[in-house]
Fold:
Amino acid sequence: MKQITSIQNPYIKSLVLLQEKAKARKQTGTFLIEGQREISIAIKGGYEIETLLFVPEICSESQTKQLASNAELIEITSAVYEKLAYRDSTEGVLAVAKTKSTLLSDLKLSENPLILVAEAPEKPGNIGALLRTADAANLDAVIIANPKSDLYNPNIVRSSVGCLFTNQIATGSTAEIIAFLKAKNISFYCATLQNSNSYHLEDYTPPTALVVGTEATGLTEEWRDAATQNIIIPMQGEIDSMNVSVAAAILIFEAKRQRGF
Structure:
């Protein structure tokens, strides 16, 4: 079995680039997953694991083999692990995994889909929270319009606590996604202040997409003009918006309530 003890090893340096640079992830079609639980969830979600790197004092060879029996195993030192690990907690195992397609055409939807669309979310923590909410509601898909962040950014991987791997995710431009929804006869409801009905008055039992924008600027005019209906969550305090993941959760679970959970 291969062993790597130096943080100056060229392969380790290439993995550091995977953590730090979206360009490296795009060029290689790979990214890093940290921790036994997340690796297991990724495998269950159909992600292909190329390599497992483990610290034998923390995660034994037999434990590591159980995660992905077909992956190459590399034994590393604690120093090498600390160079690669993104989280403070130590689990002693990392995986090099292949990224998945995010094409709209690759989405596999049910006959009566419920979808979340988020336009240009910028903060990895918000994207992670949106993915956690989508997993909790067992949505058909999450679609990100005009993405600002690489999906496999380690902050998104971490903040989603594995839900990056449990959701179907696609990306595209606003125009592409609107065309996709219309072609599939999916009604879409845009959360916005302008020309809106209260969210609880709409019927989300047919094929539905719920669309949210950023807290700073909201949804673009293109979404607002094309919407089946604009919707609003009535606000009773001093501010006129809330965290995007909280707003999305309110809308999603109203749709789930209407559908009988």
In short: The two ends are 49 Å apart (CA to CA). The first helix runs from residue 10 to 20. The mean pLDDT is 96. The chain is about 35% helix and 20% strand.
